Amino acid sequence: MNETGRRIARLIIGVAVAASAAVAFASEGGVGVSADEALQRLMDGNKHYVEGQMGACRESDTAKREGLAKGQKPYAIILSCSDSRVPPEIIFDKSMGELFVVRVAGNIPDPVVLGSIEYAAEHIGSPLIMVLGHERCGAVTATVDSKGKAEGNIGALVKTIAPAVQKVKKAMKGKPKAEFVEAACDANVKLVAANITKKSPVVAKLVKEGKIKIVTAKYDLDEGKVTLFEDKK
């Protein structure tokens, strides 16, 4: 083989290697992953976490980091609370690049949060949104305790969560405070999910077209288990 032939051969090999890398990278992201498949991955990962059989979240090594530097294709968007005990990548046993996580106290959907979700849903193509609440949420507890009023910027959180507290207040009258807080936590997660499509025409359109699915869930601080509420189509 002459020099020209060798150069062509090297070029062909280089293209093949690059194509292989691209396919491998795509397989780790959201390309070809349905909302139901994404949800199953999350729940399987949580099962590993609960059973102490974690593996994927330990794979965030140098090679993984360098591969992801080329781009991201997360298959799930997680809107969760900022609580330090509820890190989505750990409780779902996932590594870098799998989840697009938006965290804010009380997992509330303000305009900045909605913009972040819209970016992942529309521009990245993530097919699943999970609104993840948790037991004994401090933001919800603060709203219950404040009776609708709070100083400083915490007042913005209280104002946003207050409708969930009001929704269950009558039914929880006379019940222990702990039960009231948990009912409010559940109501808040469901209201947040409903408000995502109400306040985001972008997400509402994607839901209507069947390109994205929204689910609600709650994390048990004691057991580490994530339990799904009803699906929001």
Automatic annotation (TrEMBL):
Belongs to the beta-class carbonic anhydrase family. SMART domains: Pro_CA. It comes from Geobacter hydrogenophilus. Zn(2+) binds at residues 81, 83, 134, 137. Its EC number is 4.2.1.1. It catalyses: hydrogencarbonate + H(+) = CO2 + H2O. Residues 1-26 form the signal peptide. Keywords: Lyase, Metal-binding, Signal, Zinc. This is carbonic anhydrase. Its cofactor is Zn(2+). GO terms for molecular function: carbonate dehydratase activity; zinc ion binding. Catalyzes the reversible hydration of carbon dioxide to form bicarbonate. Gene3D superfamilies: Carbonic anhydrase. One of its GO terms (biological process) is carbon utilization. It is an enzyme of class 4 (lyase). Binds 1 zinc ion per subunit.
